[in-house]
Design a protein that fits this description.
3 domains; Arc Repressor Mutant, subunit A; globular; three-stranded antiparallel beta sheet; 10 strands; alpha/beta; 9 helices; about 300 residues; D-Maltodextrin-Binding Protein, domain 2; five-stranded mixed beta sheet; DNA binding; DNA-binding transcription factor activity
């Protein structure tokens, strides 16, 4: 018995990927510069072709159905090959200089592999990267000092134009053998004077009315984790960084910090038309979830 092959439209697959990347139809529409009805139509067309639901329409359920998650995996690979072929074979060659910033914990995330592949596909584009704290990168993007930043923001501060790579939970952490003082200031480890975790602590009374004193300022993630392990005090860290010698401080001791999102944020007027292609390449790797992971 011969079956009629299902045709998967590339634009519809891109709509599905954007919905998954940005957390919904509204943000996907904004990202792709389309109307919400256009995005919904593309998703419906995919569903009709494969005769399966791809999105859960009821609140409280995951955004994508099991079938939607499976198709998303194929969509990521199809779009990556499609875009690489289009970029490589197109007569319209991208060129120019890109100024990029990233946080320290992204330097060992596999982002170098993404940049290397981007350089092979677009040999006429020069990318210059520097490392800084997220708060600094946000200001540099706002002031157009860089064209794009790969950085952390609090989940509630994600913008419609941001490309979300992944989300994580923040927690208070200490060494298992470190005892919090019963009274007096809480010893706190901060990334540096531009640490936006510390800024949140100050603005939101994160120590629940107790005073705190900074015992270590270090812009290196490895330095903060080493300080926690050594028993210097407590800090706010990504839960992915908790080691076997650390433990989370319970929520009734300190105020629970908000979740964070790792995003790619573009300047309002990037200096090069290649910036969008680089952003899409980074987002593609994050979607596949193999290479682009934060350094632990």
């Amino acid at each position: 018995m011969t079956t009629i092959p299902v045709k998967l439209d590339v634009d519809s697959l891109r709509a599905l990927k954007s919905v998954a990347d940005h957390g919904g139809v509204t943000r996907a529409a904004h990202h792709l510069s389309l109307s919400q009805s256009a995005i919904s139509h593309k998703i419906k067309r995919l569903e009709d072709h494969i005769d399966c639901r791809l999105l859960n329409r009821r609140s409280g359920l995951p955004l994508l159905t099991d079938t939607g998650e499976r198709l998303l995996g194929y969509a990521n690979r199809i779009l990556a090959l499609h875009d690489e072929a289009a970029a490589t074979l197109s007569r319209r060659t991208l060129a120019g200089n890109i100024r990029m910033g990233m946080t320290e914990d992204m330097t060992s995330s596999g982002l170098a592999q993404v940049l290397a592949r981007f350089a092979r596909v677009f040999p006429d584009v020069s990318v210059r990267v520097h490392v800084a704290q997220s708060q600094v990168l946000q200001e540099e993007v706002e002031n157009a000092a860089i064209d794009l930043g790969v950085m952390q923001v609090f989940a509630q501060d994600v913008r419609p134009d941001d490309t979300v790579l992944f989300r994580h939970r923040l927690c208070w952490a200490k060494a298992k053998d470190f005892d919090l003082p019963d009274d007096g200031p809480v010893p706190f480890l901060a990334y540096d004077d531009r640490c936006f975790y510390k800024a949140w602590l100050v603005e939101n009374a994160g120590t629940m009315g107790r005073a705190f004193r900074t015992v270590l300022e270090c812009s290196s993630n490895a330095g903060i984790l080493a300080g926690i392990d050594a028993g210097l005090g407590v800090s706010i860290v990504n839960e992915e960084h908790l080691s076997a010698t650390m433990e989370e401080v319970s929520g009734d001791v300190f105020r629970t910090p908000p979740d964070i999102a790792y995003v790619v944020r573009l300047a309002a007027k990037p200096a090069s038309n290649a910036v969008g292609a680089l952003r899409d390449g980074i987002a593609q790797e994050a979607g596949e979830g193999e290479i682009l992971k934060i350094a632990l």
